[in-house]
## 1
Amino acid sequence: MEITLTPPAKTFFALIPASVIYSLIPIIGISIFIYMMVIRLRPLQKAAPDVRFNNMRDRMYQLIKIWLLQYRQPRYMLAGVLHILLFAGFLVLGLRSLELIFVGIIPNFVLPGLGGAAGKIYGFLRSYAATWVLMVALIAMVRRGICKPARYEVPEKYGKSHTGEAVFVLFMICILVISESIFEASLAAAQTQNNLHAHFLPPVTLPWFFKAWMANASMPTLEWLHGLSYFMHEVTFFTFLCFLPLGKHFHVVTSLFNVMFMRLERGGVKPVKHGISDEKLDDLESFGVKKIEDFTWKHILDFYSCADCGRCSDNCPANAAGRPLSPRFISIKGRDVIFKKYPLLGKSSGNGGQPLIGKTYEEDEIWSCTTCGACEQECPLGIEYIDKIVDLRRGMVDEGLVPQSLQKPLRALEKRGNPWGKLEKKRIEWTKDLDEQIEIKELGKKAGAKTLFFVDSITSYDDRMQSIARSTAKLLNHYGADFGILGKAEKDSGHEVRRFGEEMLFQDLRDQNTEAILASGASCIVTSDPHTYNALKNDYSGLPKVEHISQFLMHQLRAGALDLKPVEDAAKVYAYHDPCYLGRHNAVYDDPRNVLDAIPDLKRVDMMRSRDRSFCCGGGGLMLFYEPEEEQRMGVLRVKMAAEAGANVIVTACPFCLVNMEDAIKVAGLEGQMEAIDLAELVAAHIK
Amino acid sequence: MAQLFTYIVHKGGLVDDTAAELALAAQKIGSGASVTAIVTGTGADLDAVCQQASKFYSQIWKFDHADLAYPNAEAIRKLLVQLLPSDGIFLLPHDTFGMDLGPGLAVKLKSAYTADIIGIDAVEEGNLKIVRQEFAGMAYTHVSVDISDGVVLTFRPGSFQSEGQGAVNGQIVDKSSEIGELNVNRRFIEIVEAETGDVDITKADVLVSIGRGIEDQDNVEVAEELAEAMGAVVACSRPIVDAKWLEKSRQVGTSGQTVKPKVYMALGISGSFQHMGGIKGSPFIVAVNKNAKAPIFQVADVGIVEDMLEFMPELTEKIESA
Amino acid sequence: MEILVCVKRVPDTAENEIEINSDGTDIDRDDLVYSVNEWDNYAVEEAIQIRDKVGGTVTVVTVGDDESEEVLRREMAMGADKGILLSDGAFEGSDGFGIASILKAAAGKGNYDLILTGAQADDGAAQIGGMLAAMLDRPYASLVNSIEVVDDKTMKIGREIEGGNQEMSEIQMPCVLSIQTGINEPRYVGIRGIRKVASVDIPVHGAADLAVDASAAGSAGAKVKRLDYFVPELGEGAEMLEGGMEEKIDKLVELLKAKGGLK
């Protein structure tokens, strides 16, 4: 094929053959990139161990779903679609960029396999990709630079806005697609002018437009444009590559790995240190995360991978309530610490943000998290927050940095097995006010039963929540379960104790409960508290099967045994609030809804934020004892959401949700207009 | 019977209420024997105080000295050790001064010491049987004290309420010349006044006072709503201030403000004496507490056994609807 | 600075009603749990903070039985360097003077610049610090709620006095201070911390080691003796409003109106 324009590889820069320069650019670019990567990898090597090379099949599935297919992106429709287009464009154009590197060295180079029909199809595709990438980049620039969605704002305390960086990268992307298109269009224009064979440029694409624009350009102009565009592309490409590891666009490199290594199971909490058994924990010098390298390598990879999209913080109830926590900045501040401590040039500055608490993160910030998991559910890159928060808390507990208001309940849990320090013998007090004659067996040496009802502290001791215990007992009894309780032998499940970083106390509680549960001889466990459910299911091991009461009721429904009478007040509209530890952490979304729908005439609506986007009520367990500064209560926000959905009854399936909702109704001044009830209470009241 | 002495606490030229209370306690112990009140200080204030004290005591010993201008427990201990007989009975208020002076004085006098007395049960030869509380007022005890080698006793302020104004017209004896060396190793510098907050609870007629029973910072709002409905001001007990839920200026008690309202509504307050010590005058006290055994019910005029958290909104609603 | 902190193991009564046993000799201790006296915990935290600032060691000491070792370990887990248990059958029945005498003997075995106690305990009389100071002939201040070390010999201290005011003084060392709550925010002691010091040796000193005379300590020497526990007859208590919530509120509103409690 005759070519009219000089290929870049055959041109000269002054007297130097361009192929030399075009060999040097990739060599220098790639060298710098490798150098940067080596430095970026250093903290990962020094970091705590993590177990992420297991379940590779599941990991590949996640990789395809979340990374390649961008499954989570459309949860934010506009930004999501833009990102999917950009990402797809990147994948398509990446190949072309690779090819172009060699074009500067070997004239008319074509990637192996792209010579024939495949090359034609690819050329067709990449022309459109370049076009949509440019459009998306321009829209994104307008969006970032002019519309400025609130999600991307950087509050003053967290430093400077990242808009400049974002717009600069979008600008480079524009240069890449434009230069590549001009490079191609100029050649095509020249070929056409000389009546030679030209590559087919698909209509209404970027190269097609450029070709039309250059149709009458002189040959020297085309020659000049051809050379310049190639040069611009190469320089921009390697600048772009070396710019990536400097900031939030590092995710372009790390996202693949981050998603591949993302956590697969939900609900549980990482062990204090991977590879250290519980018995050996006492030998550890230090607990939890105190300095940046105490994070696991995956958690440091998380810091690198954060694209600053703000979805986590947008969904974080603590952030919404004005608490001093914004998950996005947990990542960004962590990344900043690493960048300073492991700089690309010069000496490590400062003390590397040590200790993290007080220097990088504030105590209140770390205690503000309710571990609801909304951030992790949303992150398109699989960044984890709960384990990091828990690890930081473990570090604080180890240093004695625990707010006074939490010390009392923790000490009471240690001494009495409940956070209020109430007497062990009063744990069964709720059984005294049962309205029917239900025999509640205390399981142990004397009595046995098939099902163990694990009541847990709040449901046992709190006057209001005892009603949930009684309703649950009534339901178990009504549907013929042979059940009993542990009574005095039951201790707090320790769910929040663990999530508040007091691992050793949690293990004490866990061991005591495990022993009592196994000694009871029960073959399944039922609880009305999702925190308990999650603890027994995901934090404990070697126990019989655990079910939440909604699942127990679902069995009855399936068996056709759920005989419920219609609701009395037809004016009531019910909204089901997904408790975090039933929904997001354990994917029980439908059972409670199906059970509700089994009550005849019950009108049910869903709130805008429901199911895996449910909005935390304010947190349970020890969170009840901790009051971070906040502008308003999460519960109040949630109650207002229910009102917006047109509901006047909030049905929860968690005692802590009920505490928070009932409080919030009072605080929001919605008494008389809104009420809250537990699923077990509601169903028990509708037994025929 | 051994000689009886009391120490008069005063401030700004005014005797403390405990002057009359100690006179009553001393009479109970001495069954009418003469009691000597010791007054230390300097200048015109001291004279005024001696005058006031003479209404309750037959004899006042006045000690005027520049080094006694501020009641430094160490200086006063030195003075008393020089002065008191080895088998004397010395009465002090159980306040921040008495707690500072009492234990060390007893050691130096080689006397017995008993603190925070709320009642005298029996007086025998060389022995006293007194009443105290333990566990924040949840348990009472009888305590026997061997007073044969003298004794230092501190009395809980407010435990012996005197009714009359006192008309003893005792004799004031200036003993300033007997003051010996008063060098101290703890030198008083200044008083840092508590910050006054946005409201002055000491001026309120009606106080809605909250204690531990409030459980949660957010519930403070509920109490504020009740106070608003009643036209009252919100006050609190120490734990609420320790938790930083309300300002120090809202705290009623010996370590907080002293208030004299007409009506005092104590919600979820158990009624420690430190708290009750901050309530003067004789307000109408309403106590709401879910623990029927709370000591507050012994001092309140009206008691209600309820959870304050359930009670407050209901009362607010009732008042607002009336 | 060498600091000695005197601590005490007490029943944890915060959430639990105290009941008196049937013969009135003691409170019902069956269901009680014990912990370190709250005021003492603040004292230990303050000692640790001072040590961390100016150097030295913190020693915690208690008079009690074997079980009292638990509170020493907790305070050592907090950061105290050493623990000393003063335990002897002969110490039983000691009054405040007796306890102070035992502590004095223990203090005499060291060279302490500063001795701290809690201002009071739930089952005490706010007396040990003042007695110990007098026995040792050292300056003393009670209810201390701020400490600032000025130099080797001097500290500036604040005492909490009536009306929420603070009395500032300068005090010469060595001295004894009794600490009021709120002076600091005591750090948390986790199970792990306690386990770490579980095997640290805690010396036990008896009457003979300390050369404490039987006339000073123990029940024989006690001039002050608790005779019994009792619940007073509630003759003049409050008028209790009975009935349902609504009834009570109606009655109360009437009373409040009569007493000028409503605007």
## 2
Amino acid sequence: MELDKKNNGVSASTTTTQPLWLLAEITYQCPLQCAFCYNPTDFDKHTQNELDTDSWIRVLRQARDLGAAQLGISGGEPLLRKDIEEIVTEASSLGYYSNLITSGAGMNEKRIDALKDGGLDHIQLSMHDITEEINNFITNTKTFKLKQKVAAMIKDRGYPMVLNVVMHRYNIDHIQEILEMAEGLGADYIELANTQYYGWSLVNRDQLMPKKEQVENALKVTNKFRERVGNKMKIFFVVPDYFDDRPKKCMNGWGEVFMIVTANGDVLPCHSARVIPNLEFPNVNDSPLKGAWYDSPAFNKFRGDDWMQEPCRSCSEKENDLGGCRCQALLLTGNAEGADPVCSKSPDRHIIDQAIKDSQNPGVEAKPIMFRTNENSKKIEKGDEKERLEKFHATP
Amino acid sequence: MAIETKDIYKIAAHHRFQWEKAQDCYVILFPEGMVKLNGSAGEVLNLVDGESTVESITETLSKKFTDAPNIAKDIEGMIELALDKAWIEKVN
């Protein structure tokens, strides 16, 4: 009966395969250049063929008919598009519970009012640190004051405010102060999202990954804070899976609950699914969402557990995590059908153990952070950064 | 908190209660979450409107479900759960 926050907001009790959650990655353009961005490293090639307003409205209608009720409007920075107000208004009239996921860049008094009038339900704002220095460093932009201003605007208009803070080596020791800041700003929810290593964060893993003790301390501080504030501010601490010995049930199962439509119209079961080779994802320009969700080979590829190899296939715990994350398995081991290497039963667990060992001595890494820029995206696409990527990615 | 028959509740701020055709059930939507309600929970919350007392909700549902002997207790339990989950708020 109940769907709760435990697994990305949705419990395992869903027996149907209707999409409940639509994430619209409406543009890959972003003025920020965050070193941990989960967008694909080759995002630049998807910036020229964005869906137009009419296509998005068609997508919203089709997904609603299939059962989607939660809508996340994300990016890149969605506010770079001028039609967000129009899209939100349509979403509201269709009965979505809509969420704008923003860095704050592009928000102003006029737009926040128009979004409210259009029926936007809540806003999720990314924050980075209590210090201007770290905020500006990790985003490679001067955006600290802007975020404080936008937070005040969100509260002033009576939106529920969700703050999302991606945690990494540079801010994890400030967790107490970050929580105090969130409380001071009147946040209703705060997500402390420990970096998961895909896209840009995998490229920058050496620079971002905290030590195990830092993560353990952060969890302790968070639990203590949570006891004090109770229901006033809900705190979600997303545990980084590298430090666990069982993988996460990624996206609550491939093609079970989440449907993502990207800026160029690709329909994906998770943000980074396009890293998996030899899978052709449907595109809304070619096929309606219903066919994409139910019938496309890509959405059926990892549904259920028929696809599993050993040690997952005969594992007594396979229902708990469905073998973990397919993208992580591919990126780190080269085999998308194998066990997520986070699992201690995986023959590839040593890859994770090595990363943890490396994180104890970050000084050995001499390479500078590669920020999420169009220029760097082009470089990676061209193969210029092969040496750097080989350290983290399995080579087929 | 004990539930009194004169209590009035409403759906909590930042939450939305609605019928979902595709799921064939009532749901509660809120930031980052969605709860699918079973039949009886949905019937109760559908009457939690910021005006009806627990007593009148019980009366309405007793007429609708005449073969449910412990309906008052079930309704109280459902309201208690919803309050505990912060899906509803007390008005009076």
